[in-house]
């Protein structure tokens, strides 16, 4: 496995070790392989970790197959996968997940979004984050096991920004609010989450009202944390359940009206700012119907 990366023109001078550790967030285990096997090159020559890299240098990293534990993945529908891709380069792919499709299967025999994207890319892809089965919108996959832990760390450091739209019941008293309420598992139903006063996981959702309708409100939601069902639980806890959400008492609709509209990040290697917008025809269609009723 070989990757060649051209350093951006505005990169400050730093050592190879600083590049791998601070700039690229390469995990310790992979840094050890690169150092011990002398598998990092600068402009075609073997580089030491103390060597200084400069803007526009060409960095090549080499990995043996045993450097990563890669599980086999069954491929899905190539044409479907290609139709869902919004952005793709050598290291990552952003796709538009349809509603009522799993992000990944529970076992190797189950075909899900991950399998279709792998077929479209011609190689396995790796889940960085997931969307609920019922939720549509932008999902990020890593295209190789080298970038996967880097993207994982960026997600933990809140350097990957996800913006959702939700159509929910009722009217909001204010146009901007932050819901900071811990979430735990419902002791009566392990598949369901609830707001809890003690214990649970910290959960923070920022809400902005986009449009009022007669009995519904379209809101924009930004996640500060990424808990299971977070937006659905938080809105339901304020009596603003999302339409089409039977788990959290949402009014009946043809689909769950929750859509991951935007995904934004700074590319870990090129430092390019990437902002992708995902459009859902079924979400927009139901929105138009609500607006005209």
From TrEMBL:
The active site is at 132. It comes from Pseudolactococcus reticulitermitis. Keywords: Isomerase. The keyword Isomerase applies. Belongs to the pseudouridine synthase RluA family. InterPro entries: PsdUridine_synth_cat_dom_sf, PsdUridine_synth_RluA-like_CS, PsdUridine_synth_RluC/D, PsdUridine_synth_RsuA/RluA, RluA_PseudoU_synthase. Its EC number is 5.4.99.-. SUPFAM superfamilies: Pseudouridine synthase. It catalyses: a uridine in RNA = a pseudouridine in RNA. One of its GO terms (biological process) is enzyme-directed rRNA pseudouridine synthesis. This is Pseudouridine synthase. GO terms for molecular function: catalytic activity, acting on RNA; pseudouridine synthase activity; RNA binding. Responsible for synthesis of pseudouridine from uracil. Residues 91-237 form the Pseudouridine synthase RsuA/RluA-like domain.
